[in-house]
Amino acid sequence: MSNDERLQLCDREFLFTYYVKSPVRYACQHIFSKIATPTIIPVHESFAVDIFDRPQGGVMFPSGEVLHEGSLWTLSEAGEYLFLRVSSPLEVFGALEAIISINRGRVKVFVDTPWTGQESFASAWNLLFRIVFHASLDHLKEQFVRGLGILVDEHGVLVNTSRGDLPKDLVAILAGRFPTLGHNRLLLRREKDGFHLYATPWTQPGYVNYNANIMLKLLVLVRPKTDADKGELSKKQFLTHFISKQGDELQKQVQDSVLFLDDLAVVELAYFSSDRLIGELEAISVR
Known about the structure:
By secondary structure, the protein is α+β, with helices and mostly antiparallel strands. Helix content is 27%, strand content 33%. It has eight helices and 15 strands. Strand 12 (186-191) and strand 13 (194-198) form a beta hairpin.
């Protein structure tokens, strides 16, 4: 893939064609105009979205495998279809329900009209888009990953900590020193020349030194110095820190995700100070 083609991949907007068949038309158009930005990536195909008024009592979903079940939203799978139900935290009878068929490129959405004036309505659409995006990935070639993507002397590095997400102050320090894609919900793609890391519509914002994508060479796990006596991590434990959370990103097979990352070089660093960490990252990149 050429650099121009790679940039086009990053710059493609969501290719949703939607057909509104209910009084929620104007609210939906407003939400679409906010979410479907032309500046960040990629759904892989066009999707036709039909929008309807939600029937009284809601849509009857068939029983299937539950992928996520929470207080505000649930997702299940039956055959080739995904079934999403998002409840409004404010509107007693407010809900957005969707039937998603990735293979057919179609999404049917059913919305309660009274809910459309609430801010949480936009969040429901964002969740729907994220699920469609995730479900459309080629899991042999693509995965969501966590961490901060940076360029260290032209070497792509994905950094995360052993205690969850990177602290904001450390993100700011590293992003102030190195060109970055931003952090979390990054897309890792296996291409002919290696792994490439891309920002997605849900990546935390980039900084002054911003790159659209980088070729990834190294995974770096930062462990606070107080964790040094807890022993070495296995390769699987190490890689798990870079995999998007199952409940959040709907990944059912952690083992497959670990295997996907297994070809990347890995380094573990003890964190004593920001200056020392920056120095160690620079030293690693020239090895």
